[in-house]
Please model this.
Amino acid sequence: MELTVEIVGFLIAVAFLAGAIDAIAGGGGLLTVPALLAVGASPAAALGTNKLQSTFAVATAVITFARKGRIDLRRFLGPALAAFFGAAGGAFVLTRVDPAILSGLIPLLLVAMAIYYALKPNLGDEDRHVRARPILLLASAAVIGFYDGFFGPGAGSFYTTALIAVFGLGTINAIAHTKLLNCSSNLASLIVLLAAGEVLIVVGMFMAVASMAGAFLGAHSTMRFGTKAVRPLLIVMCLALTAKLLADPANPLTTVFLDWLK
Model:
């Protein structure tokens, strides 16, 4: 992969936009991974480099939300650790199992989440009282973390939906804590991919700086505009992730549909 000023500038611009989107609704990898592939990175290197830049971006969002008092570290330190070890386990399994086995199921879950956000009338910024046990929060973080390490697309959306629907967090608090959990699972995945030599470090650091700036802007926008801006983006990113997964001819659902058309 040959680095030129034009290529680096292109990747920096994409990373900035992806960082902003990721801080608000997740799914920034929809932009960065195709961009890396387009400039000549291998699929494995594109995924590894994306984890590098996105880890810095999500960490920036975490710090921004924390400074505004939006993160309850006492309650979510355990879930963050569960997400970390879950993701490490998922990345380990990834080296031995084809993740394509999940590619047919994930679009259905993402569509279901988009419908949930579109139809739920009381989606707001205030937390609700729920009786979900703390152990369920740990288990949910570990399972979604495992998925993030093993496959990845939509992990942020899964975290946010679980925190809103099951654990009663308001939309902004759910997004803030999603960034904490996502940062933890991203870091675990990054460690595994670095050990495997699948990260373009120089390119990733350029992109990381840009994505951190985008994440800072996105996090502040989320806290300023609340659910009016967040709800549409959550729906759009769920549907965009679904479209990207189904655009792959190898996706089981796409294969069944194409066979049906014949």
